[in-house]
Amino acid sequence: MDQYVHQIRRAVADCSERGLHAAAKWAGDFLLNIPIHERPLLSHLPSAASAGFRTSTPTRGSVSGCGSLSFADDSNMMTEDDIHVSEDLFAIEEDLFITARESFNFKEFEKTAFILRECRSPKPRFLCLYSKFLASEKEAQDNWTYRQGGRSHNEKPPNPALRTLLALLSDVNSNESTSTARKEMDPFLLFLKGLILGALKRRAEAIECLILSVTAYPWNWSAWLQLGALIEDPDEWTSLQKHLPSQPTLKMLSLKILVDFNAAPDTLDETINELSELFPHSLFVKSQRALLAYHHRDFEEAEAIFDSILEMDPYRVDNMDIFANILYVQQSRAKLSDLAQRFIRADKDRPEVCSLIGNYYSIRCEHEKAVKYFKRAIQLDPTHLAAWTLMGHEYIEMKNPHAAIEAYRRAIDVNRKDFRAWYGLGKTYELLDMIQYSLHYYQRAAALRPYDSRMWLALAGCYKAMSKWNEAIDCMKRAQTCADSSEVSHVVALANLYDKSGDATSAALNHRRAVEMCQQQNRHIGEWAKSAVYAAEHEINLAIAARGGTSTANGAKIVADAIKEGADLQRAKALLDPVAASNAAEGTVAIDLLRKLKSLGAF
Asked: What global pTM score does this model have?
């Protein structure tokens, strides 16, 4: 544990002085979640080398199985002389760096870059180029006009400066064999190059740079998050893990990716338990457990975990928008109101807080105010996925499907791996009676959430509307395997689909199953009377078919023939008797069927 504490402490300082405030904050929160008696004194803080950080690429042995990947080349390693030269150079540039950092903290990015324009040591160079990157992103965002009701062809504001910035990083992770190329393997410059390559859609190169970065410096959480954003499916992530350092941060990102991709619960539980044993007080691990419960629709457990997180840190804003979603689904109006009041006083200019307040107004059915706060969240962070999706939900409530479609599409632009926007598009097109479009988007949602019964129910509804009964039946069966086994409505829906497809035997079988489930759950007879009547009528029809149109004489023979053909008239009577004796709407039909049974000689 001491080794991790030293590394996390150093990460807080290293990320902070380079302007990576999100990574520094994450590491700081993680550090404080470690009990104080397990944290060595600051005076015992080792050097960067002894803390386990490297300023160069890993050796071939460090990332076994890399094959021919360029980062497995030992020739890129920095020598001790290179490190001392870099330190001496920074000593000359330190005054410039300290001054520029203050300008950076005031978000004067262009001035920061100007001050550091001639610096050559890795740390000032990173801050200079990162400032240029942030300034160019801000300019691109300001120049990008977004028309409400229309949609730009670009997923995000185009940034023409990216290629120029990439050229300035051409010596980082270069394939050239010059000594200069070997020296420029600073993990933070590698991270920045990976960030720019990712923005340019050069995914493979970006992944390589980011793997190098996190291997050399494993506690830069921003680098891990950027790497995770480039992963397209769980199989790709599995294949990449052999190239990554065996560090707790690897398990943390793995957990986040598995939660995002709705992986099998056993795998997630194993990863969470491993991290919980290593960092039992980590709020990050607790929040991931809450997100896992949320994705599996166990809202009570998720709410309890978030309550415990707020007890430990009453001002923690991270994931509070998810907590607000949970309270919204639970219809905990008073608790959601208290949460909104608490955080609007603490930090009203965080996108998570704006989304939280939007949920508060949504539960009060004040949809225009809710949209206002979701838009505010997007203004603060255009990549805030939840705000786009929730705004789409609000537009649906406001009967504005075209605006909802635009919001959902923007959410997909932010993150194509999130199922909610795909599902929202499917629902919106279904409301517009555009079933083919709806089917396409539901299929995309089901591919992302294969264990979620709602996706398969939606697909079954589309196929039903298209009169594709076999496909609807297959989807409904899949929904049953994903849902609670005690869910009667799914069994009845499957029975109705079989009936529509002309398979009366399978329909009756499922209706009988629904009756048995309702009786076991002590449900009111009105909930299963219709199923009982259908199943009984099917038995009677079998008996009539077996009878071949003869008269009601020789009732014993008729019963025998009916049983031979699969009919069970006594079972039909057992299904009809309680319905006929009740005040259910199907009571009259049940009485008529009992008369028909009597005419068949069943009793």
From this structure: 0.81
